[in-house]
Write a structure and sequence with these properties.
Heat Shock Protein 90; 4 domains; 9-stranded mixed sheet; elongated; binds adenosine-5'-diphosphate; binds magnesium ion
């Protein structure tokens, strides 16, 4: 292959521009990114060599070497991993395979823009080299091919890069950074060692650097021709809990998640029994930008006996826990396990069950903690991840009860943080159900006419305003033996909460009102299935209810927004016979206008839209002008 000059993909150019112009803090993370790429390349080789030992070319010891040349002002990160062919170098170092680049650019334009720490999260870590280098040269050769099939890739990190064939006897990759003016601090053994121990201690391969010694004649540190391992080189999760500091756990989290915030909680356990494995699992503090993508693979890496097998092994966690990050290292799975095999494996099933339980326990201990700051953590977790956790009610029946306890809602008593257990503990004498209302917003929910009688009687009602709540309710019927009951569904019956006197009065009022009801039914026959007198209203004239088993107006609207057909079923109108406007129906000659207005207003109050707002306005104006 002759020397070729190629252009970077447009997104890469944008990234490079940002990298070289606006990332100032945490510059040193470039080393973490390049060491992590070197380590990934070794993991890949180890994995491919399981089927083809020849790839080791007789040298199975995988390692990373970091060295520099003070005079040439170059810093090199060398690995003897899988290497790249010329095509791979062009594809992997010239284009971005992963989605999410747009989000990355948007993040950089935001407040955190100067923090280089973000870069690895988006699969563009290689380019962080350009923070400190004005030229990067990569020499690489794929494992298992001849020395002549090496490639040299080189770029100044602007619009273009060059590739050319080279001879490279050793497999693997050298990334050579030509440091910018002013970045000489990275030409120091001490500096590099300290960055490596800060960010890359857990890398399970040895990272080697040349020894440095004090020369008493020259009176300076001199670099020897002797290599030493500068990282701990033991995978963090394999160490005993007692030997790991909180700071080390946090740093490890940053490396695997690329999250710049510390995790909310973590758990580290060696599990023995039916299946033997180690788990180190973290709950992030904030939702990632792609949380809502259910197709996104999970955040748990799979190792088998310390050999890296795959990233994002989705079979290890249920979908609703896709935000969990961490590592699972199995002692039982075969090394050549594939994604397909994972789906069927009984060991994996046991791991998934065990890990799910661990994550739920972590959440429970935050939620139930007496410590205010832990409780606060749970509130923050719920805000970001609550909607995802609700998916679990449909997905994970075995843990439905535990999940129900973790739910938090708004209610007529508090704007957030109400658990079902809190609700039950506040239930009134004689109350048999947990009452709720669904609506598009908290404001609509709070001002619903259906709540009036509950307010009057001091009965708490849950206000469910999350888009997934309607769906959730189709999986959550009861809690601790108390059924969940919509205040806007079915005939109004507070059971024991209503006294006989009230019931009698209501029946009498209904009987008296019967002739008007009959006329109302006729006037509204195209809009309401039924019209009846209710005691659920105190201040409002009327409200819309749907029959038990019918779809709520709120859910019908959600479906419509999502472009789906909602089954057409008419709601029921309930009127407050004691209300002045309703009373007027008995005498007023504009009966039809009044009836339509009462219906339209009931619809508006529950957050619905009028099909014909202009006619509504005309009707109201006719009455106002009269
Ligand atoms: P990521 O590591 O998230 O994939 P990077 O920007 O860090 O993103 O690297 C891009 C790609 O370049 C890698 O996925 C890999 O295919 C290739 N690559 C980078 N460094 C090496 C290396 N040392 N050896 C082999 N391939 C590498
Ligand atoms: Mg990388």
């Amino acid at each position: 292959m002759n020397k070729q000059t190629l252009s970077f993909q447009a997104e890469v150019k944008q990234i490079l521009h940002l990298v070289t112009h606006s990332l100032y803090s945490n510059k040193e993370i470039f080393l973490r990114e390049l060491v992590s790429n070197a380590s990934d390349a070794c993991d890949k080789l180890r994995f491919e060599a399981l089927d083809n030992a020849a790839l080791f070319e007789g040298a199975p010891n995988l390692e990373v070497r970091v060295f520099f040349d003070k005079d040439a002002k170059t810093l090199t990160i060398r690995d003897n991993g899988i290497g790249m062919s010329a095509e791979e170098a062009v594809a992997h170092l010239g284009t971005i395979a992963k989605s999410g680049t747009k989000e990355f650019l948007a993040t950089l334009e935001g407040e955190k823009k100067k923090d280089a720490n973000l870069i690895g999260q988006f699969g563009v870590g290689f380019y962080s080299g350009f923070i400190v280098a004005d030229r990067i040269t990569v020499h690489s050769r794929r494992a298992g091919v001849s020395a002549e099939e090496g490639v040299s890739w080189s770029s100044e990190g602007a619009g273009e890069f060059e590739v050319e064939a080279i001879t490279k006897p050793e497999r693997g990759t050298d990334v050579i950074l030509h440091l910018r003016e002013g970045e000489e601090e990275f030409l120091s053994t001490w500096k590099l060692k300290s960055i490596i121990s800060k960010y890359s201690d857990h890398i399970s391969l040895p990272i080697l650097m040349k020894k440095e010694e004090w020369d008493s004649e020259k009176k300076e540190q001199v670099v020897k021709d002797e290599w030493e391992t500068v990282n701990k080189a033991s995978a963090l999760w394999t160490r005993a809990k007692g030997d790991i500091t909180d700071a080390q756990y946090q740093e490890f989290y940053k490396q695997i998640s690329y999250d710049s915030d510390p995790p909310l909680a973590y758990t580290h356990n060696r599990v023995e029994g039916r299946s033997e494995y180690t788990q180190l699992l973290y709950i992030p503090a904030k939702a990632p930008f792609d949380l809502w993508n259910r197709d996104k693979r999970g955040g748990v890496k799979l190792y088998v006996k310390r050999v890296f097998i795959m990233d994002d092994a989705e079979a290890l966690m249920p979908v609703y826990l896709r935000f969990v990050k961490g590592v699972i290292d199995s002692a039982d799975l075969p090394l050549n396990v594939s994604r397909e095999l994972l789906q069927e494996s009984r060991d994996v099933k046991a791991i998934r069950e065990g890990s799910t339980k661990r994550v739920l326990s972590m959440l429970e201990s935050l939620a139930d903690s007496d410590d205010a700051s832990e409780k606060q953590k749970y509130a923050a977790f719920w805000k970001d991840f609550g909607s995802v956790l609700k998916e679990g009610l449909g997905e994970d029946h075995a843990n439905a009860e535990r999940l129900a306890k973790l739910l938090r809602f708004a209610s007529t008593q508090a704007d957030d943080g109400v658990s079902l257990a809190d609700y039950v503990s506040r239930m009134k004498e004689g109350q048999e159900s947990i009452y709720y209302i669904t609506a598009d917003t908290l404001a609509t929910a709070k001002s619903s006419p259906q709540l009036e009688v509950f307010r009057k009687k001091g009965i708490e009602v849950l206000l469910l305003v999350d888009r997934v709540d309607e769906w959730m309710l189709s999986h959550l019927y009861e809690f601790e033996g108390k059924s969940l009951q919509s205040v806007a569904k079915g005939a109004f019956d507070l059971g024991k909460l209503q006294d006989e006197e009230e019931k009698k009065q209501a029946e009498e009022a209904a009987a008296e009102f019967k002739p008007v009801l009959e006329r109302l039914k006729i006037a509204l026959k195209d809009r309401a299935k039924d019209v009846r007198v209710t005691t659920r209203l105190v201040e409002s004239a009327a409200c819309i209810v749907v029959e038990e088993g019918d779809m709520s107006g709120h859910l019908a609207r959600l479906l419509k927004q999502a472009g789906q057909e909602a089954p057409k079923s008419l709601p029921t109108l309930e009127v407050n016979a004691a209300h002045a406007l309703v009373k007027r129906l008995e005498t007023d000659e504009r009966f039809d206008d009044l009836a339509q207005i009462i219906f339209d207003q009931a619809l508006l109050a529950e957050g619905g839209n009028l099909e014909d707002p202009a006619t509504y306005v005309q009707r109201v104006n006719r009455l106002l002008a009269a």
